Amino acid sequence: MLQATGLTKAYGDNYALRDLDLSIGAGEIYCLLGANGAGKTTTINLFLNFIAPTRGTAEVNGLNVVLHPLETKRRLAYIPETVMLYGSLSGIENLSYFAKLGGHADYSDDDLQGFLTRVGLQEGAQRKPVSGYSKGMRQKVGVAIALAKQANALLLDEPTSGLDPKASNEFSTLLKQLQGEGAAILMATHDLFRAKETGTRIGIMREGRLMQQLSTVEVSHADLERIYLEHMH
Amino acid sequence: MAQRTFRIAFALEWTLVLRNRAIWAVLILLVALAGLAAVNGHERVAAMRMLVAGLNRDEVQTQTALKGSVARWEASRQGEPPTVANPGTVGFSLLSHYAALPPMPLAALAVGQSDVLPSYYRVTANPTYTFLAAGEISNPLNALSGSFDFAFVIVFILPIVIVAITFDLVSREKEMGVIGLVAASGASLTRVILAKAAARGVILAAALVLITLEALTLGVDGPPDVLAGLLWFVAVTVYAVFWFVLALAVNSTNRPSVTNGVILANIWLVLVVVTPAFIGTAANALYPAPSRVALTTEMREAAEEADKAAASSREAYFFDHPELAGKGANPDGFYVQVLATNAAVERAVSPLLTEFDDQARKREGIVAALKFLSPALLVDNALTVLAGTDGVRFSGFVRQVVEFHRFWRQFFETRIVDGTDMTARSFDQIPTFQYQSNDNSLIAVSLPLAALALLASILLMVAMRRLARYPVV
Q1: Is the ipTM of this structure higher than 0.95?
Q2: How far is Cα B121 from Cα B130, in angstroms, rounded to an integer?
Q3: Which of A50, A97, A149 faces B472 most closely, judged by CB atoms?
Q4: Best mutation site among B181, B189, B192 for testing chain A: the one with the most A CBs within 10 Å?
């Protein structure tokens, strides 16, 4: 569902991403680990066609994201590190807007409320202006937007960054549910523990290169940490 | 899909604007200022109308009284004719005619040149220079800054309002971080941006309609001039579109909101304040008006010379005709001498007045040519043309007054030279001034507005091209 072939992004002589080959199938959660500047966000931005590749291709459901920018985005859901929304609108209004933009104008108020409830946003908060939301609450709306889109591929850019452990855990549970529904998920993260707990595969990146890929069932927490640190030095 | 995206984004932006108190505050301020300016203009024109009506009433009363005196003498024919039957006394001293430029229907909306150039002249048999000041053209925006009128609100304040509601149209989405979610939604980002711009454009258009109706309701009396009203709205709309598109073009450069605001503020400063001031200064530097002190001195010297020459001629005349000596004191003889003196002074000051007129014409020419450098000047010019307060209409009025003055003088001079007294009937034959309207406002405003519309179209194309490639990160 998500496929990168020789995907490269260079700014002059500097490579933000170099020759990435990656394939994420349905029901997979692929976690990209790496330090800042390793190329995790660049990979996600390339899949979103927010930036153009220097060479190589990124495909969603077999469609090249450069050649089919809108079609591929309709099949993707994206949750950034910090979900920013329209502060003067309520959570449900924000959800309604992004759902409509994504082609789901048919959701009823109950449907929208259902999505927000499913991600754990309390009913009392759903109709309050987002300007009063905490980061965790905004992230939940972001997840609800992704759910409402009914996309079969998810791109998550450090979605649990800054969330408290409880919220992070709830988020992981949701990801597992989506995985169970057959979504292909690519998640960039710094959180080794969360990657091991949530992911099915892990890719360790350094200076724009995918250094190693691991299966989470085949590696322990301690081994993952050791391997990761080896690559960082 | 494209239309649906546009509709959805438009509806959202509409909601966001409805909840944006800052935008409403700015729009309410615009409406309030426009209303104040319209009322202010209405009062100014009403005061001018009242003044001219009062002067005309006084003039009619004076003329009726003079005619009555002569009529009473004509009825009895007893004794000498009254002094008021002397054409010189009537033409030079007792009677005058106020030649007034009638305000056009939209006069209240733009002061234009009406606060620096007279809207009426008191015409007597005295020389032209005694009631016509040698006209000087000044920077119309300098003149505007002295009066708070509706045109000032349009030319100076409307761009600021437009900048205030558009400077962060796209950049704010990026700074908020929402643009990523929008771009990832599967909808065209360009269409979303255009829908947002359209929503704000509709709000701005509604504000323009509102302030125009406000101006026409509060500022304009009398029968409506539909064409002028429509052209006025077109001029205001084209100017607003220019600033709106300019803000969109600046937004398309992918800079922070603060930078956009600073750039637009600087453009406003250059186009609305600096360029018009520069053009005015350049026109004055290239074609300076001759010194008024020099003109006054020249006129005084010429009058003294003419008086001496007249006295000398008179002495020579009385030396040859001693039997007439002492009769020079009678009014007829006196006014013949006045005519001779006036003619001499007019001949003497004519070159200087011509120089004044030539320099003024050249300055008008350079300002007319360079106004295309500033949209503010273009629109200000269009608005004053439509209001009938532009320099060209005033120049035409002065020409008509000068022509009328020729007839007026001729009426009295013929009688002075012929020694014919005024009769009651001749009072009815005294010329009256009637301004001949030469309305070419449609032609006068079409070219500047077309030029501005073309500039706005080019900016829109540039903005669209850039927005189509607007970077999300």
Answers
A1: no
A2: 10
A3: A50
A4: B181
Question: Based on the structure, what is the number of domains in chain B?
Answer: 1
At the fourth CATH level, the homologous superfamily of domain A1-75+152-233 is: P-loop containing nucleotide triphosphate hydrolases (3.40.50.300)
Instruction: State the CB neighbour count (10 A cutoff) for residue A107.
Output: 16
**A97 Cα to chain B: minimum distance (Å):** 7
Query: Could you tell me which residues are beta bridge partners of residue B100?
Result: B120
Within 22-81 of A, beta carbons closer than 8 Å to B belong to: 45, 48, 50-51, 70-71, 73-78, 80
Tokens of residue A32, six digits:
């990209």
B473: in domain: no
Per-residue pLDDT reduced to its tens digit, B48-75: 999 999 999 999 999 999 999 999 999 9
Please identify which residue in the block is written with the tokens 């009637």.
B434
Within a domain: B79 = yes
Query: Looking at this protein, which amino acid is placed at residue B81?
Result: P
The tokens of B62 are what?
Answer: 């004076």
Residues in chain A: 233
For residue B60, what are the CA distances in angstroms to B54, B65, B67, B432? Answer: 10, 8, 10, 11
Q: How many helices (H) and strands (E) are present in chain A, helices listed first?
A: 9, 10
Which residues touch A16 (CB under 8 Å, ≥6 apart)? A9, A10, A37, A39, A42, A208
Looking at residue B348, its pLDDT comes to 76
Kindly report the pTM of this predicted structure: 0.86
Give per-10-residue mean pLDDT for chain B (473 aa).
Answer: 89 94 95 95 92 93 94 88 89 91 91 82 86 50 63 96 94 91 93 94 95 91 83 95 97 95 97 93 83 70 72 59 49 73 78 81 87 93 92 90 93 88 93 87 88 96 92 88
**Residue B357 CB contacts under 8 Å (≥ 6 apart), including other chains:** B134, B135
Q: How far apart are CA B313 and CA B307, in angstroms?
A: 10
Q: What is the largest CA-CA distance in chain B?
A: 112
Residue B428: burial class (beta carbons within 10 Å; 0-12, 13-18, 19+): exposed
Which residue range forms the structural domain that includes residue B120? 2-468
> In the numeric block, which tokens belong to residue B251?
């937004």
CA distances for B52 relative to A94, B388, B390, angstroms: 63, 17, 20
Q: Give dist(CA B372, CA B16) in Å, integer.
A: 37
Mutate which of A78, A84, A95 to test chain B, going by most B C-beta atoms within 10 A?
A: A84
Closest residue in A to B18 (Cα) is A88
- Report CA-CA distances (Å) from A57 to A46, A154, B2: 9, 18, 27
Q: Is residue B367 part of a domain?
A: yes
Out of B19, B178, B187, name the one closest to residue A85 (CB): B178
CB contact under 8 A, A101 and B185: yes
Sheet harboring A29-33: ordered strands across? A76-79, A153-157, A184-189, A29-33, A201-206, A209-215
Q: Roughly how many angstroms between the first and final C-alpha of chain A, as a whole number?
A: 33
- Kindly tell me the burial class for residue B307, based on how many C-beta atoms sit within 10 Å of its own C-beta (0-12, 13-18, 19 or more): middle
CATH 3.40.50.300 residue spans of chain A: 1-75+152-233
